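One record is kept unedited as follows:
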Amino acid sequence: MGLLGTVTEENYYNGSQTFIGDGTVFSFTLTFETLPTTNQVRAFLNNTETFEFTISGATITFSGEAQQLLETNENVAVEVKLLDFTFGNYQYTSIKDIVDNFMIAYVGDGKLIAHVAKSDVIFHAKRGLQEFSYDVLKTVKSQEVELGTSLSIPMPQDYINYVKLCYIDSSGISRIIYPTRLTTNPTEPMLQDNNYNYVFDADGNAIEGSSVTEQRYSNFDTTRVSGNLSSEDSLYLTTNDYIRSDYGQRYGATPETTQVNGFFTINERTGSFNFSSDLSGKIIVIEYISDGLGTDAEMKVNKLAEEALYKHIAYNVLAVKRNISEYIVQRYKKERRAALRNAKIRLSNLKTAELAQVMRNKSKRIKH
């Protein structure tokens, strides 16, 4: 478990560490929370950048002219800066610490679990983190991408499900993009010959071609269904205040499509999001759910849910062991459920002041 003081405030707030050379040493000990590699830092001697250094573990060692400067001059200011650093890590506990703490608190003679392989604990910890990420920890990530003329954006590498897609307007306001049922993305667009027969390869497998449906939809004019008026519309008036006041009330308009933010579909065949043509060139933000296991840095648990993960590991270890009384298994099943419920309540992050501000809208009339 991390404690305040193990990392200096300079490390935390500036992402840097400074030393003063005494004219004899050319190696220094780093105290960053996560030790960087050589290509993750920049080094400066008396405010002049140098590339003559290497990092091994917690030690940075200078060489060449940088080493000579440090060994022949006193009071040389050495500054090591991280290329990338983040704040707020204290609210999390790493999966490594979770496993180590569990082995200390739950495993051993006279304890709940007499013996269990550490690899089993790691498996259940990662599996628990994965499950918690879906509805407790809510590992929501987002990507900002400019949409090109292909009208397609690949799914993020650790994508599980989407939360929201939106585009950013000129004021920086997010405009939600809705999925559409107007079209579809075929998973098997079959290639056919001039007689409409399927085409097969040398092994007898059907050959897939490009999708005609997707090609036609890429040219679809969304104003035909959005209800938006243009200067070429027969209903458009020079003084169109009356028309504008009646948006959404014209005969035949479908509420599902009567919006001007565009549409998207999910193409499972190509693993991508496809967008309507009116969104070309716009900045798209994709908010999605990850399972929390994408990288080593992501495998951490909010401290408000730490106890729930311990109970999850304990229950799953006991449930698969032999000669464990059923009442003990059921006891930890109940404790896991209770700890999980507490974690959800803690992480719901409900603030009375914010709720009161939102509830001030209750007196407004809802217009249909």
